[in-house]
Amino acid sequence: MKEQLLDKLPKWYKNINKDKYYLILSNDMDSYLSCCLLHKLFCVQIGGFFNTYSGLYINAERTQGKEPVYVDLSVCLPNAKC
C-alpha cells in the first residue's frame, strides 16, 4: 500500500536543487518550519512570502532564473510545485 501511494506522487521532489529552485512560504509556523527543514536538507533559500491578505512578495536577488516551490500552500497554477 505504501509503495502504491509513493508511485502516485510527482517525482520532481527527488531533485530539489538550490540552483534551480527557491521556496515560497506562507504566514504560518508549519510553513516556516518546513522551509527551515528544506533549507537544511537541500540548501534551498526562501525567496518569497505569500499572505492571503496582502499577496506575494518576491526577493528578486534570490529568485533570478529559478522556479518557485510553494511550501504549505495550495496553488492552482499549471506546473506549480507545492
Class by SSE composition: alpha/beta
Topology, number of strands: 4
State which percent range the strand residues make up.
Answer: 15-25%
Number of helices: 3
Which regions have little confidence, pLDDT < 50, spanning 5+ residues?
A: none
N-to-C series of helices and strands:
HEHEEHE
Radius of gyration from the CA trace? 13 Å
Shape field = globular
Main sheet: strands, sense, barrel? 4 strands, mixed
Helix share, percent: 25-40%
Structural account:
With 82 residues, the protein is α/β, with parallel strands linked by helices. 30% of the residues lie in helices and 23% in strands. It has three helices and four strands, in the order H-E-H-E-E-H-E. The chain has helices at residues 2-8, 29-42, 60-63, and strands at residues 21-25, 46-51, 55-58, 67-70. A four-stranded mixed beta sheet has the order 3-2-1-4. The radius of gyration is 13 Å and the shape is globular. The model has no long low-confidence stretch (mean pLDDT 89).
Distinctive features:
single chain; 82 residues; alpha/beta; four-stranded mixed β-sheet; 4 strands
Nutshell version of this structure?
The chain is α/β, with parallel strands linked by helices and 82 residues long. The chain is 30% helix and 23% strand.
